[in-house]
Amino acid sequence: MEGLLILLVLCCLAITFLGYSLNKSLKRIEVLEEFLEKYEKILERLSKTIATSREHIYKLDSSGHYQADDELGEFFKTLIEIQKALDNFDLTNINEQQEE
Predict the structure, then answer these.
(1) How far apart are CA 60 and CA 66, in angstroms?
(2) In terms of C-beta density within 10 A (0-12 exposed, 13-18 middle, 19 or more buried), how is residue 73 classed?
(3) Fewest CB atoms less than 10 Å from the CB: which of 2, 12, 15, 72?
(4) Taking the model in full, what pTM does it have?
(5) What is the CA 12 to chain-centroid distance, rounded?
(6) Cβ count within 10 A of residue 43
(7) Which domain holds residue 23?
(8) How far apart are CA 84 and CA 54, in angstroms?
(9) If you write DSSP's letter for every residue of 4-67 in order, what string do you get?
(10) Phi (first) and psi of residue 48, to 5 degrees
(11) Distance CA 6, CA 14 (A)
């Protein structure tokens, strides 16, 4: 009888400890999910900004006016290279890959 009581107390302590640990873990997960949602919003805005700048740069480049000047042309070529590097960062492509 005494052994059964000790076993019951140990089980209650184990259940209490596991419940407390689970509760703390769930709170941490909620905090991390909120953190992730904030960064997803930031990345979405950044992706939209990159797309807008890409459209603007290619509109400017369509006339070829900036390539005529040597110094300005070199700067514009560098700007286009930067834009191409930014084009590789596209949040919509990342989200589509995660869904697959």
Answers:
(1) 8
(2) middle
(3) 2
(4) 0.57
(5) 42
(6) 15
(7) 2-99
(8) 8
(9) HHHHHHHHHHHHHHHHHHHHHHHHHHHHHHHHHHHHHHHHHHHHHHHHHHHHHHHHHHHT-HHH
(10) -65, -40
(11) 12
pLDDT in tens, 14-71: 999 999 999 999 999 999 999 999 988 888 888 888 888 888 877 877 776 666 666 7
Cα atoms in the 13 Å half-sphere on the side-chain side of 61 = 16
Cα(12)–Cα(94) distance, rounded to whole angstroms? Answer: 46
Q: Would you say 50 and 87 are in contact if contact means Cβ atoms under 8 Å apart? A: yes
Tokens of 71: 């110094």
**SS3 of residue 83 by DSSP:** helix
Task: Round to whole Å and give the CA distance between 14 and 17.
Answer: 5
Residue 87 CA to residue 92 CA, distance in Å, equals: 11
CA–CA gap between residue 80 and residue 61 (Å, rounded): 9
The total number of structural domains that make up the chain: 1
- Please name the amino acid found at residue 6: I
